[in-house]
Specification:
By secondary structure, the chain is α+β, with helices and mostly antiparallel strands. It has 6 helices and 3 strands; from the N terminus they run H-H-H-H-E-E-E-H-H.
Length: 115
């Protein structure tokens, strides 16, 4: 889906979003291609697919993506990323998860560890 198609669905969620309205107006005045695509009203929901990411610590990753609207609030969407088992992307996610787990750990006083 093109960015204009993804943005097309957003005004229906909040038609009074001034920032989005201003952005659409600016893009429409500057880009014939955007203006045409915006006028096409081509809105489709992509619930599944693959996305490529380039992370500075682990490099390129290709992840499967699945999205779900939440029943309690349809304006919210849960996005789940997974990697194929035993793939370089799975290794990258594993490395990132261990790195994230070590962040924001409280520093301990070495003397307290043995008290």
């Amino acid at each position: 889906m093109r960015p204009s198609g993804r943005a097309r669905g957003r005004p229906t969620r909040n038609p009074y979003d001034k920032d989005l309205t201003d952005l659409i107006g600016e893009l429409s005045t500057r880009s014939e291609l955007f203006r045409k695509r915006w006028a096409d009203h081509n809105v489709r929901q992509h619930r599944t697919g693959q996305k490529k990411f380039q992370h500075p610590a682990v490099g390129d990753m290709e992840l499967n993506v699945e999205t779900m609207s939440l029943a309690s609030d349809p304006a919210l969407t849960l996005v789940i990323y997974t990697a194929a088992p035993d793939s370089p992307s799975a290794d990258g996610l594993r490395l990132l998860s261990t790195w994230a787990a070590t962040q924001n750990q409280p520093e301990t006083n070495p003397r307290e560890r043995f008290a």
